[in-house]
Amino acid sequence: MGEVRIGTSGWRYPAGPGTWSGIFYPPSVRSRRSSRVDELAYYAEHFDTVEVNATFYRPPDPGVTRSWAERTPPRFDFSLKLYQKFTHPAMYARGTRAVAPADGDAIPRATRVDADGFLRAIEPLAEAGKLGPVLAQFPPSFRHTPDARGYLDWLLGAFRGHPMAVELRHRSWSDEAAETLALLGEHGAAWVQIDEPKFRFSIRQDHLPNLSVLYYMRLHGRNAEKWWTHDHPDERYNYLYTPGELEGFADVVNTVRQIVRRLYVYLNNHFAAKAVANAALLRHRVGQEVPGTYPAEMVRRYPFLEPLVAIEGSSSDSLFGGEGRADVPAEDAESQEG
Predict the structure, then answer these.
(1) Residue 21: φ, ψ to 5°
(2) Direct distance between the N- and C-terminal alpha carbons of the chain, in angstroms, rounded to an integer
(3) CA–CA dist 174, 180 (Å, integer)
(4) Which end of the chain is more exposed for a tag (fewer CB within 10 A), N or C?
(5) How does pLDDT run across 38-85, given as a tens digit for each residue?
(6) pTM for the full model?
(7) Angle, CA 165 vertex, CA 64 and CA 291 arms, to 5°
(8) Do 29 and 21 contact (CB within 8 A), yes or no?
(9) Residue 232 contacts by C-beta under 8 Å, 6 or more apart in sequence?
(10) Sheet harboring 193-195: ordered strands across?
(11) How far apart are CA 98 and CA 101, in angstroms?
């Protein structure tokens, strides 16, 4: 049976309408940096993996990734989303004032220097044995073309030696499934299975693995009403999977784990810690323990957790209640947004 790791996409959502503060993280977590307690260590009491979103917005500093390794248990690991320069050329240009790609040009312009820099930044996690897959998440504008295949071939080659997972969203990749599978298989990269609101050209997937060594699934939620039009970015992830919906994914996991050596499943419906609630329930549904204690407010909001989790009876039961707990290092204070 393959090893299954279930977690959430990101661990730190300190503000906005979908904040985790006061829901998953007890109220004693304050907004002032000097009094912030270590949310990563608290998260790691409940899950054994996390998908890091912050690395999409800027490459991490090696000191920060070293700190992550030091503040988590031995069996904990991090899946890191590639910096947007590798996958989202238009977004990268807007954020950095770089030369914008020509209309319709969805091929990134990352270089070997960029890849080497990212690899150096994540090396402390690799050295600590805490580096999970590196995630290349492409937008719907990245379509199956000879240039796109060539770039993806280069990208996977640049990160050879590290487990890779590739999220493709445009239907052209599944329409040419044989070529896509051959390319990913040549590099030993997992084809990410995704659940999200569908559009006309959404990729078609069957949740089957393409490798025997690695499987990667991301559950983004199904809030179709707010997916494309919303007042705040958090709103598109305001979706709670029902126990019945998660039962279907549990069946997938239990089937795939008979074939694949290691499985990663991440919940990205992060609004108001709904991802945490769903990840805890999914752990239970695949036969895993649900460790850690959960605040009463979390269980009040998501009552299906009550028979599954230990509820914090007092502040002394929580990581945040004891004395001598270290604050989050300053360099990590803004490292995990969205």
Answers:
(1) -65, 130
(2) 33
(3) 7
(4) N
(5) 899 999 999 999 999 999 999 999 999 999 999 999 999 999 999 999
(6) 0.90
(7) 60
(8) yes
(9) 16, 17, 18
(10) 3-8, 262-267, 214-219, 193-195
(11) 9
